[in-house]
Design goal:
The complex is a heterodimer. By secondary structure, chain A is of the alpha/beta class. Chain A has one domain: NADH:ubiquinone oxidoreductase Nqo5 subunit (Beta Polymerase, domain 2). Chain A contains 3 helices and 7 strands, in the order H-E-E-H-E-E-E-E-H-E. In chain A, a hairpin with a 5-residue loop joins strand 1 and strand 2. Chain B has a single domain, classed as Cytochrome-c3 Hydrogenase, chain B, CATH 1.10.645.10. Chain B is 48% helix and 11% strand. Chain B has 17 helices and 6 strands. Chain B has a 3-stranded antiparallel sheet with strand order 1-2-3. In chain B, strands 4-5-6 form a 3-stranded antiparallel sheet. In chain B, helix 4 runs antiparallel to helix 5 and helix 4 packs antiparallel against helix 11. Chain B is globular and about 80 Å long. The chains are: A alpha/beta, B mainly alpha. At the A-B interface, strand 3 and helix 3 of A face helix 1, helix 8, strand 4, strand 5 and strand 6 of B.
Chain lengths: 171, 406
């Protein structure tokens, strides 16, 4: 019998109980939120369990929600069970003041650069990562550019002097 | 006379150590892109490698947070620029999944044709460049003619060649012209003989086999742990293909097989790519046959709120003008939601993780770039091999700098 979202949710709730919340299925993809300190335990269980077998890490990324107090940053893991061909999305929320999350590099070799990228853009401190340095941005950078406090230039702004670009000067 | 030592400031311990540090890249001609690898070599054998990436990072994920959805398609062109249409389609399919739009079969088949052409163009470059890196330039120059023909087909459809911006949310910007179909037919008729000849040049070529067999080999377990997808994973013997695992764009209507290798070395990657080109040709042929039974004037879905209308209608029809204005100004009603959508890119699972809050631009858009994820295995793959093997290994992985750095 093929694995279903309901079965995964049941197995996870049996094992972890209140640690896991926010079960949803947007577009059929089982999504759940784990307490911050449990991300590795949940992933380890998903990896080791003979029924669940989530042994392929598709993606790690982060999202910044500046309005959520004490859980501004979300780290999002996409896991894949290749045998049963079912995906799962795991989220952990962490305060921006102390963004410490356990690393998944012991479970998946691919987590190395994915976590470096997430650190690079969001400043998530992956505790236990062997080499947590910037990967795409310059090493001298002192901020984390994908956070929402760094907005891009508004394309509708009108105070710009366009003379240098051959579009007439300020009116 | 000045003491020479005062002028040359060598790093501490660099004289005493037994190995040599060599910078392979970032602008080495044999790396085919901006890749830097700092190699520690003992003679010609690589002791360790450190890869540096990010030379052409352009912050697409950040830029995407300011752009209306239809303006993000050109950003995706510049990820894997050897097969830009697959990226475009991947993004468009993601938005369509978010909005719940259903495409007519003909649109799906046209997309399949263009994606498979792009896959052939991409594999063609990778396979023939492997020949170049092992000393056989002829095959590369020969098959270029047919990549050129594929680019001409793109040109017939969308007007551009490399960074295509092909397709729109809701379909294609215009119908395929008879000239486009004629060129696709020409490609289908002429290319098999060329591919066959290309294969006879390299597949059983003693020099090529010696240079590639056992080079950059990876086991299936390590490949999975490193997040390999696409031909590189399949060369290691895992038959994971998004087109079959999670069919999109009516791929379930087509009959094709997934070629797999056994050893996961450069030679198997080459073989898997060549076999995939044959499968792609068969898919395009099947799609062309299926198109014959469908009405020839359908090239987009009937979703006026999201599909950019034809210019001619914009000038003459009120409705079209309104929708055109709303879409161009980024005022089309986007639904809030969180969606992950993956397509089988030419070098692996190309995923788009999109969070929409209903605003004019995505709240967050993340590209799962296969290149970036499997390139981290490079240091492990080349450890203990010769420098010349490192070059072959790199070209066999099909690394595209644009995708690596996003």
């Amino acid at each position: 019998m093929s694995l279903t979202n309901e079965r995964i949710q049941q197995r996870l709730t049996e094992k972890f109980g209140d640690v896991l919340t926010g079960f949803e299925e947007p577009f059929g993809l089982l999504t759940l939120t784990a307490q911050k300190d449990y991300n590795l335990k949940v992933m380890q269980f998903l990896f080791d369990d003979e029924e669940l077998r989530f042994r392929f890490l598709t993606d790690i990324t982060a999202v910044h929600y500046p309005d959520r107090k004490n859980e501004e940053l979300a780290v999002v893991y996409h896991l894949h069970n290749l045998q049963d061909n079912i995906r799962l999305r795991l989220k952990v929320f962490t305060p921006v003041a102390k963004p410490d999350v356990f690393t998944a590099t012991q479970l998946y070799a691919s987590a190395n650069w994915m976590e470096r990228e997430t650190y690079d853009f969001y400043g998530i401190n992956f505790v236990g990562h062997p080499n947590l340095i910037r990967v795409l941005n310059v090493d001298e950078m002192t901020y984390f550019p994908m956070r929402k406090e760094f907005p891009l230039e508004d394309s509708m702004r009108i105070d710009k002097d366009d003379e240098m670009f051959g579009r007439g000067g300020n009116v | 006379m000045l003491d020479q030592k005062q002028h040359i400031k060598l790093p501490e311990g660099s004289i005493e150590k037994d190995t040599t540090t060599l910078n392979l890249g970032p602008t080495h001609p044999a790396t085919h892109g901006v890749f830097q690898n700092i190699l520690e070599i003992d003679g010609e054998r690589i002791v360790s490698a450190v890869s540096t990436v990010g030379y052409i990072h352009r912050a697409f994920e950040k830029i995407a947070e300011r752009r209306p959805y239809y303006q993000i398609t050109p950003l995706t062109d510049r990820l894997n620029y050897c097969s830009a249409p697959i990226n475009n389609m991947g993004w468009i399919l993601t938005v369509e999944k978010l909005l719940g739009l259903e495409m007519p079969k003909r649109v799906d088949y046209l997309r399949v044709i263009i994606m498979e052409l792009a896959r052939i163009a991409d594999h063609l470059i990778c396979s023939s460049v492997m020949g170049v890196d092992t000393g056989a330039l002829t095959g590369f120059v020969y098959v270029m003619t047919y990549r050129e023909l594929i680019y001409e087909i793109y040109e017939e459809i969308c007007g551009s060649r490399l960074t295509t911006n092909i397709g729109r949310i809701g379909g294609f910007e215009r119908n395929f012209t008879p000239a486009a179909f004629a060129k696709i037919e020409r490609f289908l008729n002429e290319y098999p003989a060329v591919l066959k000849e290309f294969e006879t040049l390299l597949t059983r070529n003693r020099i090529f086999m010696e240079r590639t067999q056992g080079v950059g080999a990876i086991t299936a377990e390590r490949a999975l742990s490193y997040g390999f997808t696409g031909p590189n994973l399949r060369a290691a013997g895992v038959d994971y293909d998004v087109r079959v695992a999670n069919p999109y764009c009516s791929y379930q209507d087509f009959d094709f097989s997934i070629p797999v290798g056994t050893t996961g070395d450069s030679y198997d990657r080459f073989q898997v790519r060549n076999a995939e080109m044959w499968e792609s040709l068969s898919i395009i042929r099947q799609a062309m046959d299926k198109l014959k039974d469908l009405p020839a004037d359908v090239y987009h879905a009937d979703v006026p709120a999201y599909y950019l209308p034809e210019k001619q209608d914009v000038y003459t029809k009120m409705e079209a003008l309104i929708y055109h204005f709303k879409i161009v100004m980024g005022e089309a009603d986007m639904l809030p939601g969180e969606v992950y959508n993956a397509v089988e890119g030419a070098n692996g699972e190309l995923g788009f993780y999109l969070i929409s809050d209903g605003g004019r631009s995505p709240y967050r858009l993340h590209f799962r770039r296969p290149c970036f994820i499997y390139y981290q295995a490079y240091a492990e793959l080349v450890q203990g091999s010769m420098i010349s093997d490192a070059i072959v290994c790199m070209s066999s992985l099909n690394l595209i700098a644009g995708e690596l750095d996003a």
